[in-house]
Amino acid sequence: MAEGHALVRECLARNRPGHYQLMAAINAVHTEAAVAADTDWRQIASLYSQLYAVLPTPVVALNRAIAVAELDGPGVGLALLETLELTGYHPWHAARADLLRRLGRTDEARAAYDAAIATSGNVAERAWLVGRRDSL
After folding, report:
1. Treating both helix axes as pointing N-terminal to C-terminal, what angle do 19-32 and 41-54 enclose, rounded to 10 degrees?
2. Host domain of residue 99
3. Residue 130: is it exposed, middle or buried by C-beta count within 10 angstroms (0-12/13-18/19+)?
4. pTM (2 decimals)?
5. What's the pLDDT at 36?
């Protein structure tokens, strides 16, 4: 991992990074944290902003919104997330459900989990989402 992190830092310092370098940098920041709570969300959000500048897709914007939610709170992240047109994409519903849950908006969270379950094609993922929904 240390060698990979060094390569990412070298690449970022050498030139204007492309989307692969930025994705590698995001991954490197995630792997530096021993537990999720130790993640440098400021750096993750900044890297997603840079990634969006070179790869302006709704999925990149979704990932940035999640990072911003970790940094600035679930209300801020939810506001960003709800501007995206990803209603057919189950990770959007799952992220929305989690942010609503964190805001204490249980009925809306339950409905969002139901939408995530309905749009997911992965049995294990659906089971995890059902568990999250049922814990509300």
Report:
1. 170
2. 61-136
3. middle
4. 0.86
5. 86
